[in-house]
Every structure is written in C-alpha cells, then in structure tokens.
Amino acid sequence: MKLKFTFKDPSLFDKAITHPSFRRRKVNDFERLEFLGDRVLGIIVAEMLYKAFPLEKEGDLAKRQAVLISRDVCQEIAYEIELHEDIKVVGTGLDGNSAVLSDAMEALIGAMFLDQGLEVTRQHILPLWEKRLAITQAPPKDHKSLLQEWTQSRGLGIPAYELVNQTGPAHAPEFEILLKVDDHSVKARGKSRKLAEQEAAKQMLQIKHAMQ
Questions:
Q1: How far apart (Å, rounded) are the C-alpha atoms in residues 160 and 177?
Q2: pTM for the full model?
Q3: Which of 98, 123, 188, 200 is most buried per CB count within 10 Å?
Q4: With a cut of 70, which residues of the chain have pLDDT below it?
Q5: Are 13 and 7 in contact (CB under 8 A)?
Q6: What residues act catalytically?
C-alpha cells in the first residue's frame, strides 16, 4: 500500500485487508470496519464539500457527496494507493472494477479511525478525495436522475424500484433492487436501498446506451 500511514496496532490493518472469503469468523472484522469506514468517509467528504462550496444548497452538496463516496470512486482510490496488493481474498480478481476494492477502502478508513482518530485519518484521506473535487463544475446528476430524464423524454414515465430482498446482519445489511424499464429489467445490490437503486439505474443506463 502506498498510503503513508503507520498503524500503532498492526492487527487493525490486518483486519481491514482480510476479506470474509479468506477467513470466515462469527464476528466479521472486515465488514464491521467497512461499516465504520463508510460513516467516517461520509463525515470527511461532507465537511470538505461544505467548505469548498459555501453557496451551494444542501441538495447539490448531497449530489456531489453521492458521487465522491460512490463505489466507483472508492475503487479508483483503492487502486491508486495499491491496496489491491495487500488484500487477502479468495475467489475473485482484484482489478479497478472489483467491489472488494471499494469495501476494503472503507474498511481501511475504519481501521485508521480506530487506530489514530478522526483528525489523523482526515489528514491522510482528504488529499485523495480533494483531487476529485473538480471532476465537474456543476453539481453532478446521479444515475437515478439521469435515468428518469431518459424515460420521461421517451414517454415511459418514472422508473419504479422494487425491493426484492434484504440480507445480512443488522450492522451490515445488503439490499437487492429490481428495476424494470420498458422491456428490460435489472437487479442490483447495495449496502443501503438508495445505493442499490443507484446501481440499478446505472446498469439500466448502460443497457440503453449500448442499444443506441
């Protein structure tokens, strides 16, 4: 890993890079750290946006945050710091498109927070996300908004998202969403219903764009 952070408790780093497929336990340290890191990252990015865009409304800040803490960005940053070289996982490849990478990035942030607190974690994590502030000047549109614009422009109405399954423990649930648009349907999973809906919308947009 290229991130210059030295753990006082190395066992926390080991827990953060050990995927459940590698070492199954009753209490899963990886998923618990991922849960914590997701919240810590949200706080760090929210504060960054609050300071960077003092004139923007809450809704626009939320759109920016949704992009910056998305699975895609977490994957990208995990690959950038070469976290994939340390992760212990069985049964999947670790490339720039692996969901394991984004989960491990969040687990790493959770481990850093437990090891040395919010301020030190912010000092190491913030520069990685600050570089991505200028991706778009205007608040980005999320996948659900883009899909709704697409369907309404074609007289297909508003997309309907159906929750078909919820699994996992209370501290780390996983939601499965079914989305149907015209004669196509997709299923997607996420750590919240909102994230699962965004992933389903993203997949549907990819299908529609491929047909054009």
A1: 10
A2: 0.71
A3: 200
A4: 24-27, 91-98, 134-138, 140, 211-212
A5: yes
A6: 38, 106
